[in-house]
Amino acid sequence: MESYSRYIRQMLTLSYSNKTLEAGCDEAGRGCLAGPVVAAAVIINKELEIEELNDSKKLSHFQRTLLKPIIEKKALSWAFAFVDHVEIDKINILNASILAMHRAIEKLTIQPEFILVDGNRFKNYKSIPHQTIVKGDGKYLSIAAASVIAKTYRDLIMEELDKEYPMYNWKQNKGYPTIEHRAAIRKFGPSPYHRMSFKLLENQLELDF
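The structure assignment produced for this chain is given below.
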């Protein structure tokens, strides 16, 4: 009987275009209340064989940690970049997510011939053609690889920020709007890393700035 991981691997498509250098892009942290949004761009090797690779949200922290160095070693090129909470508040989270992707693409050591983006919104990057794919991180290998890179690096950032402000337990919730996180905001107020343009509490009027 074929393993489940092999079944998952067969569900993911190697590429969308007929271009050799196709970069998959994804972001992590878009729905968080604190910290940056982090994006990654990955140009995979066409011979890439990582059966367990999938949308990072469907993988455990342990699985993502194992996959990260494998992707970094086997990819033709990879990069991550971020847009911090201050910029997010200035330009909104959608624009910040796209900007983070642009910054990640710019850091690639190889310029891609085509860009494949998770989601349904993107802005042209230079003159490189692109395609958005809704839930693409569960459909294409390059986007899945980017999702793992973006997620693991953002987790590392939030774990570092947690050392400064342990009361929010970012090492565990990574800045997402959990009940525990919102309770800490209610008790201690927002930190310097919180996104003030976001609804930090269910009843924003109760937040004393």
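Interim note for the steering committee: Residues 1-9, 205-209 have pLDDT under 50 and may be disordered. The chain is about 40% helix and 15% strand.
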